[in-house]
Design brief:
Blueprint (H helix, E strand, L loop, with lengths): L1 E5 L12 H14 L3 E4 L12 H7 L1 H4 L3 E7 L1 H4 L1 H14 L4 E5 L5 H7 L6 H16 L25 E5 L4 H8 L5 E4 L5 H17 L9 E10 L3 H16 L11 E2 L1 H13 L4 E6 L3 H14 L7
Parallel strand pairs: 1-2, 1-9, 2-3, 3-4, 4-5, 5-6, 6-7, 7-8, 7-9
Helix pairs in contact: 1-12, 5-7, 8-9, 11-12
Length: 308
């Protein structure tokens, strides 16, 4: 199992990062052996937040041949043609592979900000993912209910970005995406190891029904909030006062995350590895550089990681 690293886009106690901070973070992640650098996406959030796709573009040189991923970005909020152009541009600038993780998002505030009905997000997303995937591959896409015909965009990089979907694991969404996406981003804070493996099993069934080989359909578990500390009170504070309010979750429902002592974090990583997860994307809550080091050390302690 590999580890990837989310860019620290939000102010969770250390302020928002500068461009130099992001480049230093990515260089450190590469040196430690993280396989992927990923960026999430919101227009509005519960804490100050810098733009994910823009931040990802700013670290292409520092990333070298590390995989760059959106995990996820919002084609309904941003428009699928805009997202396709962003992804193909990233792939043109990057040395390594680019994965375009797409999802509808779960925040009504993002939709209100651009005047799109939140209730339409799934119907629009089903169409938006197909359109985005066609465009990044240099293909024409048919007119749908929400999006008109668009001629191919140029340039199309070789290879083009892969287009994954993000889902918390609902059976309807897994079935809908099995035939049309290139991979799956699961959500760590919404799925413990048992929930992940159960959802993956259902996805495999839908892939077979669509005539696809589950063994060639990759996944990663994203938004794995990380904070390694031997202080129980500090770990409780991170869960209850920092993460729970912005994620709108009871702290007890976040106890499966790697927030706590090194052994607890090692056990968490080992449990996801045993469940079959190929990669975990960790997100240091604060003190990002030190937490990358501690997180990789904990994963190695649990015997759960291989380097990129």
């Amino acid at each position: 199992m590999r580890l990837g690293a989310h860019l620290p886009l939000a102010d969770l106690g250390d302020g928002v990062p500068t461009a130099a901070d992001l480049r230093g973070y990515v260089r450190a992640a590469r040196e430690l052996g993280f396989a992927t650098v990923a960026a999430n996406d919101h227009l509005l959030w519960g804490r100050p937040w810098i733009d994910g796709p823009t931040a990802l573009a700013s670290v292409t040189a520092a990333a070298g041949d590390t995989v760059l991923a959106t995990s996820i970005t919002l084609p309904v909020v941003r428009h699928p043609v805009v997202v396709a152009k962003t992804l193909t541009t990233l792939a043109s600038l990057a040395t390594g592979p680019v994965i375009g993780g797409l999802g509808p998002g779960s925040s009504r505030r993002d939709y209100d900000a651009v005047g799109i009905p939140f209730e339409e997000r799934w119907a629009r997303f089903d169409e938006a993912l197909r359109l985005t995937r066609a465009l990044v591959r240099g293909e024409e896409a048919a007119t749908g209910r929400f999006y008109r015909h668009c001629a191919p965009i140029e340039p199309v990089p070789d290879p083009p970005p892969l287009v994954w979907f993000g889902s918390w694991g609902s059976d309807r969404r897994l079935a809908a995406m099995a035939a049309v996406a290139d991979g799956w981003f699961a959500s760590a804070y919404n799925a413990n190891p048992l929930q992940y493996v159960e959802a993956r099993g259902r996805l495999d069934g839908h892939l077979r029904a669509a005539g696809r080989d589950p063994g060639s359909f990759p996944d990663a578990v994203a938004t794995m909030w990380l904070y390694v500390t031997e202080s129980r009170s500090e770990a409780r504070q991170v869960l209850a006062d920092v993460l729970a309010p912005v994620l709108h979750r009871d702290p007890d429902r976040l106890a499966h995350l790697p927030v706590g002592g090194a052994q607890h974090c090692a056990d968490v990583f080992a449990e996801y590895a045993a469940a079959g997860a190929a990669e975990l994307l960790v997100w240091p809550v604060r003190d990002s550089l030190r937490q990358l080091e501690r997180g990789m050390a904990a994963a190695g302690k649990g015997g759960a990681t291989t380097h990129a």
